[in-house]
Write a structure and sequence with these properties.
Elements: H1 3-30, H2 39-62, H3 65-95, H4 101-142
């Protein structure tokens, strides 16, 4: 027999052993009730025993070297399949002269950097504008304002009138 066939047979035997043990535990639990206990309690004991036996058997199965090796092989196959499909799609994009995923990712990264730089610069400008507004408000509060003279109704203003130039 080949090595892989022997390995598969060993894994099947280990799986069968685990299930046979769990089924024997289930049967032992199912028939260990006392005859004077009421039926709902018997059912509750059976259910608890079944769940406990299943939990133990699955715990043992999932921690077995055969299961872990199978999961490792499955994950390696999934990763290899992902790589293959990515390579195939890259070739398709290349043949169609479409941008590759790396091209799109680099453009997106450049746009993000540009956006970050613009936002940083806008924040600096906003800070400068607020600083200028603060200084302007300080200067306006420091300089005394001259009171404006309003003419009262009915009184002529005291400001001299402009004379027109001779000959006009």
């Amino acid at each position: 027999m080949s090595d892989s066939t022997e390995q598969t047979a060993e894994q099947a035997a280990a799986f069968q052993k685990i299930w046979m043990e769990s089924m024997s535990k289930l049967m032992q639990t199912a028939f260990t009730f006392t005859p004077d206990s009421p039926p709902p309690e018997v059912l509750r004991q059976i259910r608890t025993g079944i769940f406990q036996a299943l939990a133990e058997s699955w715990q043992e199965f999932m921690r077995s070297p055969q299961f872990l090796e199978g999961m490792k092989q499955w994950m390696e196959g999934a990763v290899a399949f992902r790589r293959t499909t990515n390579d195939f799609m890259a070739k398709v994009r290349n043949e169609m002269q479409a941008p590759s995923r790396e091209d799109i990712d680099s453009i997106m990264l450049s746009v993000r950097h540009m956006e970050t730089r613009l936002l940083d610069r806008l924040e600096q400008l906003a800070g400068q504008v607020s600083e200028l507004n603060r200084k302007l408000a300080e200067r306006q509060s420091e300089t005394p304002t001259k009171p404006t003279v309003k003419a009262e109704p009915g009184h002529a203003s005291k400001a001299p009138k402009k004379r027109s130039a001779p000959g006009s």
